[in-house]
Amino acid sequence: MDCQLHDYQRFSADWVLDHPYCGLLLDMGLGKTLSSLTAIEELLHTFESVDKVLVIAPLSVAEKTWSDEIEKWDHLNHLTFSKILGNQKQRLEALEKKADVYLINRENVVWLVDYYKKRWPFETVIIDEISSFKDPKSKRFKALRKVRPLIKRLVGLTGTPAPNTLIDLWPQIYLMDQGERLGKTIGAYRNRYFYPGQTSGYAVYSWCLKPGAEEEIYSKISDICVSMKSKDYLKLPPRFNNIIEVALNKKEEKQYKQLERDLLLPLTDSDVVASNAAVLSNKLLQLANGCIYDEDGEPQFIHDAKIEALERVIEDAQGQPILIFYSYKHDLARIQKRFKEAKSLDVKAGDIKKWNNGEIPLLLAHPQSAGHGLNLQQGGHIIVWFGLTWSLEYYQQANARLDRQGQKESVIVHHIVTRDTLDEKVIKVLEQKEKGQDALLEAVKAKIKEVAHG
Predict the structure, then answer these.
(1) Phi, psi of 383 (to 5 degrees)
(2) What span, in angstroms and rounded, lies between the C-alpha atoms of 144 and 364?
(3) 3 state DSSP class of 157
(4) Is the predicted pLDDT of residue 205 greater than 90, yes or no?
């Protein structure tokens, strides 16, 4: 297929060409993959300035999205690729294969670095969803940090660079510039721009920005990070967010309050114990969804309020396909038990094509596994969040499976929220985080008009 790049895509490709290390902080649907591949093709064959390229991506994206884009477009389909996936034997065979682009899932980055060590052969690296490297203590970050001096070109792609806090920025920018802008260590970065918020003795649980720090951080990274929001560049149909409230009955509300208060919910045959606040949060969200795992990992049914709300949404849709995001395996099991036509997303079984062809009326997906790179916009325009996620990144990416370029109808995003439970807090937190994210993206937004007139 012939490809005519949009102006913003050409700008993004040129940004990669002009910057040996950089970040494309592009909203979902703006074609980060296509822009990056266009730049790769030109670096490989027009300028002949790179040899081979390593792309690190979420598993489903490494398996399908990048190779699909290469095969789809005329100006890219001569590029050869090799997928470093599967068991060790398969990965080693993929490394032996001569190719222009090597694709690997982020979980195998540590293995790849350990395999090559100082013989690291990839001078050009693209990290798709670089925000997954936001933890400086993670093995994947430490591994890539080791070989970063051997990398001559590095591009970080994401739509959510700071999904929770600007603390998350340091590891991502470090992988780009090796500490040139925000400091060589996370400690130095924190001490310069933040002060301790919530503390207990010497332990710091949260960090707050110092006055003026936010603007200074944005300024520091603006020369290597280009940011674009889809609302500025895409003429997408409007998206509507809808809250569907459900309520617990008195017995269920009493169970919820007791679990919240005592960290222990007595059930008929077993007990559910929340040993700390994080576990308690998880348990409360489970209960809000209608089922909860006990100490033995067995699901214990509580209520069907969300199932009944989902049933009403399905009835109102009048046969239109619906994409449903669930949180727990017991959510999946209960939905499939009630709605026999519901299909759990299986990329390898060709479910993306079936969905886009209108062959799947109810598609069930977990936001963590379906949140990146899957193009589902041709199959429907209705999303239901049966269970909510704390992660802004997963939330935004999941919604962007339908709310993206190529969508012809208004996207409706339903959130089933159990009243007077943690569900309400999650919705508020996501809204607050999204505002903070927008501030970051706006702060380093591409000065395309200025460049065009300059």
Answers:
(1) -120, 140
(2) 34
(3) strand
(4) no
